[in-house]
Specification:
The protein is α/β, with parallel strands linked by helices. The chain contains eleven helices and twelve strands. Helix 3 links the parallel strand 4 and strand 5. The chain is flat.
Length: about 325
Amino acid sequence: MKNKEIKILLAAPRGFCAGVERAIEIVKKSIDKYGAPVYVRHEIVHNKHVVDNLKKIGAIFVEELSEIKDRSRPVIFSAHGVPKSIPIEAEDYKMEYIDATCPLVSKVHREAENLHKAGYHIVLIGHLNHPEVIGTMGQLPKGSIDLIQTVKDVKNYNLKIGKKIAYVTQTTLSVDDTKNIIKALKNRYPELKEPFKEDICYATTNRQSAVKNIAKKCDMFFILGSRNSSNSVRLVEVAQQSGCVNSELIHSESTVPFDKIKNCTTIGISSGASAPEILVEDFINKIKTKFDVNINEVEIVKEDINFKVPGKLN
């Protein structure tokens, strides 16, 4: 009996962004230069497959520097960025550190600092407890930056009297949701100062646009990525909001939902900025075991951005 044919619309761009590629490269080059082990504070990027592969070659992941027993070994800070207190702590421990913060996150850090120096009170649009948010808030003295997560938060927000107000954002947010929050902020504070160039990064924007472009043509949409990856979770929401209600995240513990796929004629696939392409290939190969597939890659923009690793690793 012939297998049912399933059409796969493959969103492009998808998968690794330049900041993720740079961070992974920094870990590999650090192991080449210093030997194993090297320590990494927090998951270098939010993907179990990536983290497990780096563990195999000698990376040890910790949440705090205090967990590191051998302080003669170097430590790498994750792509999400760290509060100012962390490099100071590393110096106190006399540890060598390598900063793998994505340059686009570092841009937000500098922006927040410059606004603070210019006398602005800062609102950060982002998700509570995400490491990037912890890192950005940790660039400034306590009380000089507040977190806003939703339009409702804007309604309940009270700015200290006589303060100028500016906003920055996490780099991996939903473009549409963030627009609504900014609109609500501008309605309350018409003098709100905005970033010179928006903070949501090119990779987040491109991946969301690519998903939006094909979502309404799909019966189901699958995003390959981790549950703690902000940009992957946002892609699921974007697919749902753009016309494919049956959208789900395929993470390290997911099984392929063949029973749902068999009711589809067209499925969409994309992956978060921290998900390697091998995960997409594996997922498609599993689908091929039960169905005949016809793959159509739909590219909306070519990405050619590349970030250099720190000079001391070359």
